[in-house]
Amino acid sequence: MQILYLLVPLVLFGLFLFLRRRGRRDTVLVDGSNVMHWRDNTPDIASVAEVLAELRRRGFRPGVVFDANAGWKLEGRYRDDAHFAHLLGLPEKHVLVVPKGQPADPTILSAAREMRARIVSNDHFRDWAEAHPEVRAPATLIRGGYRNGKLWLGLD
Fold first, then answer.
1. Whole-prediction pTM value?
2. Partners of 97 in the β-ladder
3. Which of 11, 98, 134, 145 registers the highest number of CB atoms within 10 A of its CB?
4. pLDDT at residue 67 above 90?
């Protein structure tokens, strides 16, 4: 378990370095644990995959962060970065599953701040707004969901 706590900063740093090279405008972090509930409020990896495809189509370079329980919600067991990367067709360094007992929100917010990235999520991050006031800025969060079965993202 302690190895996970050592690996998370390394994976996050790798994600940070890769996405930082790409520049501010095209870097986006996806709150995978939030987005996977967008369709009918039921966990579904296809929602995350569709959001990633749309972001790439629009020229963004996405990374994804999941809570540790995402695998349990989707498949009834723990799943790691490599598994989700494979499912989503992303390099492993673009996916992070935070360790058990650690919420993904502060990791997402810290990484987004460091990378000057936007965040795809319907979470308002109220519990973290004092430490991360940038979440109150309209340009930081990209909202989205499904209307009549069709994905929409608040990019327009």
1. 0.84
2. 66
3. 98
4. yes
